[in-house]
């Protein structure tokens, strides 16, 4: 046997082995990419589910304090419950949301509420009970409970422009946080 025949024989034996090894490496890499895409999809799905939970309560708070939309259907107790539920949700899932959203959320909450109303007291809603937009006592569809008066802090009511900006910022930040940057 000469060197040429030996080289041909070696090449014919090594080629399938190299193809198998390369195929194994490519397959391993493709599985790794597929796993990363699957994890990314699951994260996006979870963030979209969070958006579906967070956005309605943010809108509820905005409508109530801006006196628009369905504000007459929202009781002060609903506002306190919404804050408590959102605080819990946002803090539980803080690691999945961006720091920008967390800051925008806290800024918005501080526009809407006076959060530290004292020991064993709920946050106070920073809104008027009655103004040129309406009277909550007579407009609330399920009826006004006189105890609701104590849930308000009418001394530091946010200007509508400040409220609008804080709401726009928290909603935009929420969109970006879930990977849906619309502009």
Please describe what this structure looks like:
By secondary structure, the protein is mainly alpha-helical. The chain has a domain at 55-177. Helices cover 64% and strands 4% of the residues. It has helices at 3-66, 76-92, 99-112, 136-139, 160-177; strands at 113-114, 124-125, 130-131, 134-135. The protein has a two-stranded antiparallel ribbon. It has a two-stranded antiparallel sheet with strand order 3-4. Strand 3 (130-131) and strand 4 (134-135) form a beta hairpin. The longest helix is centred in the N-terminal third of the chain and has 64 residues, at 3-66. The radius of gyration is 29 Å and the shape is rod-shaped. The protein starts with a helix and ends in a 6-residue tail after the last helix. 20% of the residues are buried.
Helix/strand-derived category reads mainly alpha
Distance between the termini: 72 Å
Quick one: biggest sheet? 2 strands, antiparallel
Give the CA-based shape.
Answer: rod-shaped
Average of the residue pLDDT scores:
87
Low-confidence stretches: none
Sheet-strand content, in percent, reads: under 5%
Helical amount: 55-70%
Beta strands, count: 4
Spatial strand arrangement across the major sheet: 1-2
The helix/strand series, from N terminus to C terminus, equals HHHEEEEHH
Q: Provide the gyration radius in Å.
A: 29 Å
By DSSP (H or I, 4+ residues per run), the number of helices equals 5
């Amino acid at each position: 046997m000469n060197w040429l025949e030996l080289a041909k024989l070696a090449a014919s034996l090594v080629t399938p082995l190299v193809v198998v090894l390369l195929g194994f490496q490519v397959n391993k890499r493709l599985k790794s990419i597929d796993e990363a895409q699957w994890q990314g999809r699951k994260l996006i799905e979870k963030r979209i589910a969070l958006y579906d939970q967070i956005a309605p309560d943010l809108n509820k708070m905005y409508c109530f304090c801006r006196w628009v939309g369905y504000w007459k259907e929202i009781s002060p107790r609903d506002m306190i419950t919404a804050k408590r539920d959102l605080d819990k949700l946002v803090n539980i899932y803080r690691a999945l949301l961006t720091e920008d959203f967390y800051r925008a959320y806290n800024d918005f909450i501080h526009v809407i509420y006076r959060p530290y109303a004292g020991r064993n007291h709920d946050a106070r809603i920073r809104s008027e009970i009655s103004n040129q937009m309406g009277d909550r006592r007579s407009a609330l569809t399920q009826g006004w409970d006189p105890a609701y008066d104590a849930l308000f802090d009418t001394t530091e009511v946010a200007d509508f422009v400040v409220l609008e900006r804080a709401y726009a910022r928290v909603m935009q930040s929420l969109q970006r946080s879930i990977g849906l940057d619309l502009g």
